[in-house]
Amino acid sequence: MSRRVRAYLPNGRFLQVKCFMSQLQLVLAQINTLVGDIPGNTAKVLASAREVLERGPVDAIIYPELTLTGYPPEDLLLRPSLDGRIQRALDELLDARLPTTLVVGYPRRRGDKLYNMAGVIQAGKLVAEYAKQCLPNYQVFDEKRYFVAGDQPCLFDLCGQPTALTVCEDIWHPEPMAQARAAGARLMLNLNASPYHQGKQQEREAMIAERAREGKMPVVYVNLVGGQDELVFDGGSVVVDAQGTTRYRVPAYSEGNYRLQLDLATGHCDPSLLVPVPERLSAVYQTLVLGLCDYVTKNRFNGVVLGLSGGIDSALTLAIAVDALGADKVEAVMMPFRYTSDLSKNDAADEAARLGVRYGSISIEPMYEAFMAALADEFAGTRRDTTEENLQARCRGVVLMAISNKKGYLVLTTGNKSEMAVGYSTLYGDMAGGFDVLKDVPKTLVFELARYRNTLGEVIPETVITRPPSAELAPDQKDEDSLPPYEILDQILALYVEQDQSAEAIIARGFTREQVERVVRLVDINEYKRRQAPIGVRISQRGFGRDRRYPITSGWQLGD
């Protein structure tokens, strides 16, 4: 038996296609694109497809959301040459006349409206296009700034099977799936650029399963992989059957073409690939590694340099840098001062040796004294305060930036989320640099990640992990002299920064009024610092960057 269903075409018309039972040979092309490099991304699609076809025929190769521009292209979408560049890229894909179906994403203008589009290329023709209907405009997303939402389903004939298209956010809402089912679809292809945050893969699969059950059809979910500024796309592409069971899961954090045979009747996938979802610490660590690796390589830095203090933040940052780039592209510099302990010096040298990086020691004492001499008249009659402490940090910043300029290295700062939140950092000092790997990592998680990294090979000395944290900018200084214990601080920050709870709501949870009001006040008054801080990898649902936008100048009062 057969039945006829509608397949919607780019011109808004439709054709009738026959539906037969079938098994489909599919490839999930989990690729790492470069935002804005439309020719390079197009070449990557063609190279990927040709590599697949060299190993045998397939019915379709599915690529991530906005394949040709990369994601998120932000205001590149406003450039007047965008339309021409996209058309040239599509023409190149059409002219290749590959003997398979390509499903790719790209921005596409119809009249004066720009759509986030998924297109289907078969036998040198663009046979179907789907405009994303659900445009995310929350957290790190602002697609409504650029795109107009579509309102129609799109079905195309894939080897006799009526196959529907959706794009990313569409799978989080029931309407696009309901439309596709009503139109007669038997399979859903969902193109994604879904960034990581902790627990995200579990959230995705739960939602995909819900949609698959509602639509009574398998869902093929293909996600982007790679770092783009502060966002990291972790891959984890899956196939979920009509009962909501995940049947196929590819490795996270890994670029590749993953081939399978999908039986539409049973949802069975051959081969039966079901790579485990990474454990929490493993996922966070791999996210940090991939985010740093892609930021450095895509921006063509020669390597990285960082100040290695003997503390846990710089120790973890160094380990991540080596895992991301290799020891030959990492330089660590100890910059001791009179308050730097022998333990810090020894631990820094020990870790550098364990990781095999270039390591040197440059005392900041002479330059500090030169600054103090130059400022003697200006400081006459004043007491010593944090000015002198900040001057030490700024001497270190100057040293690292000089090395950066001379060698073409990116300076890595080492501040964690807890410090960034309360302003426990020095502008133009330890904040001077181009990328902060730990920017969205609370201090308590820093300790967890350090211990996790040591399970892969002990590179962080135990004394670095167990000693009380200190900036060592004054005699016998400890972080908790001026901050609440990190176990308490991080809980308050999570409630205030990531969940937007009020001071009164946080106090009601059992924290003291004094602690809460002090922490909240510190967060608020240090917005100006965070605006000048380098970007860093986002791992939470609310990092300091794209998805938390508070005014610097504000009269907002603490309260409910």
UniProtKB/TrEMBL annotation:
This protein's UniProt keywords: ATP-binding, Ligase, NAD, Nucleotide-binding
InterPro entries per record: C-N_Hydrolase, C-N_Hydrolase_sf, Gln-dep_NAD_synthase, NAD/GMP_synthase, NAD_synthase, Rossmann-like_a/b/a_fold
Native organism: Cellvibrio japonicus (strain Ueda107)
Binding site for deamido-NAD(+): 390, 419, 529
Name this polypeptide is given: Glutamine-dependent NAD(+) synthetase
Active site: 65 (proton acceptor), 132 (for glutaminase activity), 168 (nucleophile)
GO cellular component term, pick one: cytoplasm
Family, per entry: In the C-terminal section; belongs to the NAD synthetase family. Belongs to the NAD synthetase family.
